[in-house]
């Protein structure tokens, strides 16, 4: 009798172990089947709300809105720089037609035209305050003095040429001579420095005029944005490198924006940045939530892979191949996490720009 009882107890224990193994196997099978379902299939199967998909849709909508708002804001900056460049070309380049030819603005072909264009720049610059219709003026240093306008000419150190005799004698080393003057008296340089403007065109390589101007982008007031102050580094180049009889004129501008030192805005045009900052903060929160959910999914996938590998090892004494293991790694989750990190960094930088 005792042997029968012991056998029955052993049989019941064996049956219980088999039942537990079947339950574990069925549970693993269900988890595997559920893992590889689409969000809609998961919802129909277990009625779990696809939070990750909802967060991704919300994130796409918010980041798109964020980019549109940021683009509209920067559109004003781009338009201001482009229109300022066009205004300065019309102010300082004689006979400028409003359309650049290839990469240069104006071309001159005679010595008289070169001097006319050169002295035209000086004359216009000395009368800037009476000519320009925009809020632009001469740049000043820390002591309140106007920064000078500078003219530099680069030419071959020594040269002699006779095209009719097919003979030349050129020293290819370049020499550069510069002079500067107060901007308000720039139109008097022609008489005060006549020797400087005695140009040997067969030796002249280029002539550059550089000066600095300051301006304010007032158009942003209508869009509830604080106007920025700009420092324009303007360079006008008379390019004679080809020595072909055609001198090309370039006008290049390097603009630096900064917060105005002393400003006051009254009325309804005051800037309300806190709403945009709150929106950017919410975007960061959504991106963090998205990254956390995707990281959690990757961790759960790794744990499921470990269970699957352990089951194969215990029941079939076989390791899961690398190809099957790669099926558990969803590359989209990795890309979403990377995009979330980039969106967070971009939002922080955007907040710093808006809160300046």
UniProtKB/TrEMBL annotation:
Signal peptide: none annotated. Keywords: Membrane, Transmembrane, Transmembrane helix. Residues 77-261 form the Mucolipin extracytosolic domain. It holds the Pfam family MCLN_ECD. The chain crosses the membrane at residues 275-299, 332-349. CDD domains: ELD_TRPML2 (cd21071). InterPro entries: MCLN_ECD, Mucolipin. This is Mucolipin extracytosolic domain-containing protein. It comes from Ameca splendens.
